Amino acid sequence: MLKIQNLQKTFNKNTVNENKLFKGLCLSVEKGDFITIIGSNGAGKSTLLDIISGSVPCDGGSIFLGEQKISNMSEYKISRFIGRVFQDTKIGTSPSMTVLENISMALNKNKRYGFSWGIEKKKIPDIKILLSELSLELENKLNIKVGLLSGGQRQALSLLMASLSNPYLLLLDEHMAALDPKTSNIIENLTDKIIKRGNITTLMVTHNLKQAVAMGNRLVMMHRGRIILDIKGEEKKSITPEKLLSLFTEKESGDIISDRLMFA
Ligand SMILES: Nc1ncnc2c1ncn2[C@@H]1O[C@H](COP(=O)(O)OP(=O)(O)OP(=O)(O)O)[C@@H](O)[C@H]1O
Q1: Is residue 187 pLDDT above 70, yes or no?
Q2: Which of 2-16, 45-59, 121-135, 181-195 has the lowest average pLDDT?
Q3: Atom 5, ligand 1: which residue's CA is nearest?
Q4: Which N-terminal stretch is annotated as signal sequence (predicted)?
Q5: Rounded distance, CA 91 to CA 85, Å?
Q6: pLDDT at position 246 over 90
Q7: What is the CA radius of gyration of the chain?
Q8: 44-62 pLDDT tens trace
Q9: Closest ligand 1 atom to Cα of 207
Q10: 131 C-alpha vs ligand 1 centroid, how far in Å?
Q11: CATH 3.40.50.300 assigned to 2-252
Q12: What's the whole-model pTM score?
């Protein structure tokens, strides 16, 4: 479903700050895979999602989403196939528009008339049901401007909106990192529910080892632009945060693991 072959990326080429990040990274993702991605600071996790979504160009290699080569496409075109939720709770929604207008925009995303927030009245009951499943009272706030919602409510809405256009791929970039523990827990459960319900192929970057272990069917660990661990099936089910840490140290002995990863 997603095939990344021989990915190359160098930042600040031919300068003193040159950083050869990806030197032939490969990753094959099956339809319905829910992959949690962990790794040290600067490992390339966000850059990988940026390149897949077209916001950062790669220098070489190819990325296929199904039969479609997306590695040379514009970010705008790729966004038709991909949903993305960021760490910043303000990015996925439009603050000056109401909850209903935001939802309508997501529902109309890939339609011929494009981004529009016109909503058919008959759809409102279904939208209320979708929102009530978030258990954040948003079904009673249809006409409230999204800028007035809490970070958790906005993130739940972003997640729902990212899933509404039935994306081929969902990219979650530390989308729970800016939330307090209770809200993070709510969004974690929602993430699981939304992904399972739609069987959405998903890559989720996290610094939280417990979430990386508990969620998804596959776990990828990155370090310095390389994939150093890729586990799935029974191995993934039986992994613990402690085992992950010792595996990391085994594979990269001598390197200092990031405090952020270690104490998440
Ligand atoms: N626009 C850019 N210009 C120059 N260097 C960049 C740019 N974006 C990322 N980098 C570098 O690429 C490397 C990977 O960064 P990236 O943000 O992808 O890592 P990460 O694994 O997501 O890290 P973290 O866990 O700290 O968020 C880092 O060394 C970073 O400084």
Answers
A1: yes
A2: 121-135
A3: 11
A4: none
A5: 8
A6: no
A7: 19
A8: 999 999 999 999 999 999 9
A9: 25
A10: 35
A11: yes
A12: 0.90
Residues with CB under 6 A from ligand 1: 11-12, 19, 21, 39, 41-47
Ligand 1: atom nearest CA of 260 is: 25
The number of the ligand 1 atom at minimal distance from the alpha carbon of 44 is 18
Q: With a threshold of 0.90, tell me whether the complex ipTM lies above it.
A: yes
Compute φ and ψ for 6, nearest 5 degrees: 50, 45
149: Cβ–Cβ under 8 A, 6 or more apart, which residues? 99, 138, 141, 157
Tell me, in angstroms, the distance from the centre of ligand 1 to residue 47's CA. 6
The position carrying tokens 């930042």 is 11
Pocket probe for ligand 1: among 21, 47, 50, the residue whose CB has the most ligand atoms within 8 Å is 47
Q: To 5 degrees, how large is the angle CA 56–CA 248–CA 61? A: 30
* Predicted pLDDT at 118: 62
CB 89 within 8 A of CB 155: yes
More confident residue, 114 or 7: 7
